[in-house]
Amino acid sequence: MAGTIEHKGRISKDVYLGTSGAFLAICIIACSVRFYVRIVHVRQLGWDDDILLFGLCCLISGVALLFVIVDTMYESDAFVFWEGPGMPPTDDLGKFIDKTFWYRRVSAAGLTLCWLSMCCVKFSFLAFFKRLIRQMPVMIRYWCFTVIYNAIVTLYGTACHWAACPYFTVDDALKLVECVAGDSLQLTIAWGAIAPMALDLAGDLFILVIPCILIYQIRVRLSQKIALSLTLCLTIVMVILTIFRITGLKYKGKLDTIWETYFVLLPAEIGLTLVAASAFRALYVSKSKNRKPAHDTITTFHWFARAKSRLRHNGSAAFEDIDKGNGQFILQEIPRGTITGVQTFIDKNGKNNVTLSTVHSADTTVYNHDGQ
After folding, report:
1. Is 84 exposed, middle or buried (0-12, 13-18, 19+ CB in 10 A)?
2. Residue 262: CA count within 13 A, CB half-sphere
3. What are the DSSP calls for 135-186, one per residue?
4. d(CA 291, CA 145)
5. Which end of the chain is more exposed for a tag (fewer CB within 10 A), N or C?
6. Rg (Cα) of the chain, in Å, rounded?
7. Where are the transmembrane segments (predicted)?
């Protein structure tokens, strides 16, 4: 009977544990690499990193809670979707009911944490985009609207996990059955699942507008725009997963809680992984900044700096200072020399003009003689 329960429904227990565990491991590795890059190479942590860290903590805590109750979750799902005669076989019905309500409370806590981690993906993107639109007043106002909207959706979605079907004790067993398979099912699905997911989908689309506008306004090659769009428009994946989550909530006229749990957990893991992957762009920028551009040695006076350092090493004090800002240099006062008996012959335009300059001392008189 255990094997039948594990494979009851559309998502088997092996698939549930295998895929969610694998994506969680990938998410932890990606986030670890991101924080390594940000701390070691970029040497700076931003708001998007802080939000990502909070989301990762929520995700790990939520997955731990959901993995603890996975057996009871599949047993409860098998009970709801039982199609045989009478009641589904259980060892102890009273104990099973107690476990079901314990599962309900732990599941609500785990889903809330996974929901918060999924929302952290949005706010991490928004924190990153804020740096790109500093000089765009209209986009800043739109960014503020998007932040407020997603904050409200986050609070609403958190409340829905507790208020959509608020029955967590044995005394409310009949009301709980009505929530998941009775007359209240449509209301539970509409206000507790579809409404927050539809609002969440709208929030993803609002966020998607920002990178699309940025890509449109940047003057780069088409191939670079495509690469940039693949980097910035990662929320498209979240939109697709949200649509999958909405379309599969109701199964055989009942609420499929395993489907709902799986498609809250999976988008959170994938979303955090994609956010963490954006750190490799920061690593590329950091390495590009560290590259020293090639300058002309004449215009930048590198030859002068090397000569100056050698003269200082030999004890010479002929040069006093260098202006590092623009490459100009200041010379210490150079003593006048004494030139005696020097003749300079200059052949200019076919005429022989000889200028004899005789300097007897620093204060001598200069005589100019024409060659006639």
Report:
1. exposed
2. 23
3. T-HHHHHHHHHHHHHHHHHHHHHHHHHHHSS---SGGGHHHHHHHHHSTTHH
4. 39
5. C
6. 37
7. 15-39, 51-70, 108-128, 140-169, 189-214, 226-244, 264-284
- Distance, in Å, from the CA atom of 142 to the CA atom of 140, rounded to the nearest integer, reads 5
Whether residue 262 contacts residue 35, with contact meaning beta carbons closer than 8 Å, is answered with no
3-state secondary structure of 4: helix
* Token couple for 222: 């088409």
| Coil, strand or helix at 270 | helix
Q: Which tokens go with 326?
A: 């623009």
The long-range contacts involving 312-320, CB below 8 angstroms and separated by at least 24 positions, are none
| 3-class SS shares of the chain: helix, strand, coil, % to 5 | 65, 5, 25
What is the rounded distance in angstroms from the CA atom of residue 261 to the CA atom of residue 73? 10
Q: Torsion over CA of 117, 46, 208 and 144, rounded to 10 degrees? A: 100
How far is CA 202 from its chain centroid? 20
Q: Containing H/E element for 345?
A: strand 342-348
Q: Give the pLDDT means over successive 10-residue stretches in the chain (372 positions).
A: 54 89 92 83 77 92 92 81 61 74 89 92 85 83 94 92 79 74 73 84 86 72 59 70 80 79 88 76 46 41 47 46 42 49 47 43 42 44
Taking the CA atoms of 144, 150, 153 and 154 in sequence, report the sign of the dihedral they define: negative
Given the structure tokens 């500093």, which residue do they identify?
A: 134
Give the sign of the dihedral formed by CA 281, CA 287, CA 289, CA 294. negative
φ, ψ of residue 86 in degrees (nearest 5): 70, -155
Tokens describing residue 306 = 């090397």
pLDDT at residue 372 in the model: 44
Q: How many residues does the chain have?
A: 372
> Distance between alpha carbon 274 and the CA centroid of its chain, in Å?
7
CA separation (Å) from 346 to 264, 331, 343, 359? 91, 30, 10, 19
* Residue 267: closest CA among 243, 242, 246, 236: 242
CA atoms within a 13 Å half-sphere pointing along the CA-CB vector of 101: 17
